[in-house]
Amino acid sequence: MRSESHWRQRTGFDKLRYMDWTPLLSTLTGAVIGIAATLIADRNRWRREEARHALEVRREVYTEYVSALKAAGEEIRAVALGDYMSESARDAAVREAVRGTGIYTASERLWLMGPPQVVQAGNEAFHRLRAIRDAYARGVAVGSADDAPLIERRRKAMAQMRRLMREDLGIVPLDIE
Predict the structure, then answer these.
(1) What is the pTM of this model?
(2) N or C: which end of the chain has fewer CB within 10 A?
(3) How far apart are CA 58 and CA 50, in angstroms?
(4) What CA–CA distance (Å, rounded) separates 107 from 62?
(5) pLDDT of residue 85
């Protein structure tokens, strides 16, 4: 019969039992740390790219919205300066001038992409423009005493909206409006 030591030699039991596990554990630990660090770095890079992309999209949305508001204001002013045979013809022309500027599409994009404070300010600027549109449609003359407070409220709403948009984009305020 063979002894127990013979059995250990044949199975390599002694080699496993007395083997130095430190290099293997160090290698495995290093691999886990390396993989984890790579995954964390990739995740952080993805987040930065997503934030950069979201900022660019908001910048485009804001530019589109402000441009549409300005265009709508200019269009309704130009229409209001024209001569119309009837009040209904003037009303229709002023309303059509606003529709043709793309303000409604730009407004929806702002509602989808903007933070609440910017959406609220943009909505206020839009309502100030609509008040002017409605006044012109009723026959208020451009540059009249009735027109001046409407223009001033719109100017203040636009300034507030731009300030909040710049703040959201990380751009310093202009302090000139």
Answers:
(1) 0.73
(2) N
(3) 12
(4) 9
(5) 64
CA-CA distance, 89 to 6, in Å (whole number)?
111
Residues 92 and 89: their CA atoms lie apart, in Å, by 5
Q: How far apart are CA 34 and CA 30, in angstroms?
A: 6
pLDDT recorded at residue 10? 52
* CA angle, residues 63, 176, 160, in degrees to nearest 5: 55
36-52 per-residue burial string, b: 16 or more CB within 10 A, e: under 16: eeeeeeeeeeeeeeeee
28, burial (CB in 10 Å: exposed 0-12, middle 13-18, buried 19+): exposed
Out of 4-13, 104-113, 133-142, which region has the weakest mean confidence (pLDDT)?
Answer: 4-13
Residue 124 near residue 160 (C-beta atoms within 8 A): yes
* CA–CA gap between residue 164 and residue 144 (Å, rounded): 30
Query: What are the tens digits of pLDDT across the range 102-133?
Result: 999 999 999 999 999 999 999 999 999 999 99
